[in-house]
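Still learning folds. Look over my entry:

…
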Amino acid sequence: MTNEKAVIQKLLKIAESQQKIITKLAQGYQAPAQKVEPKLPPHGSESNAVLTALPEAVRLMVNRLEVHPGLGMGQPGDVKVQFKPGKSSSDAFATVQKTVEQLQNSNVLPLKNYKVEEIV
C-alpha cells in the first residue's frame, strides 16, 4: 500500500511538472496572425496563370487568352479567350470558365469576379 502511494505521488509530481512546462510554453507562444492576402502573380501574368492552370488538352486549343482588370471598384474583370480555328467547343470554354473560377477562389487572380468571353 505504501509503495502504491509513493508511485501515485511521483506520478502526480510528474503531471504537475508537465503542466508547468506546458503553461510556460503557452505563455511564450504567440500564434502568427492569420492574414489572407491574394497570391498575386507578377503584373501582366494573370493570363499566364490561367493558361498554366488549364489542362494541357485545352491549353493546346487556345490561340490567345487575355485577362483585363475591371474598370472600377467592384467591376468584374474580363477574360477573353480565342481558340485556334476549328478547336472551339462548349466543353473547352466551360473548362476555361471553371479554371478562372478556381483561380479566383484560391486568390491567384486578384479580383473576385471575372466575365469569361470567347472572341472569334
Remarks:
- DSSP finds four helices and three strands in the chain.
- The beta strands are 62-68, 77-83, 114-118.
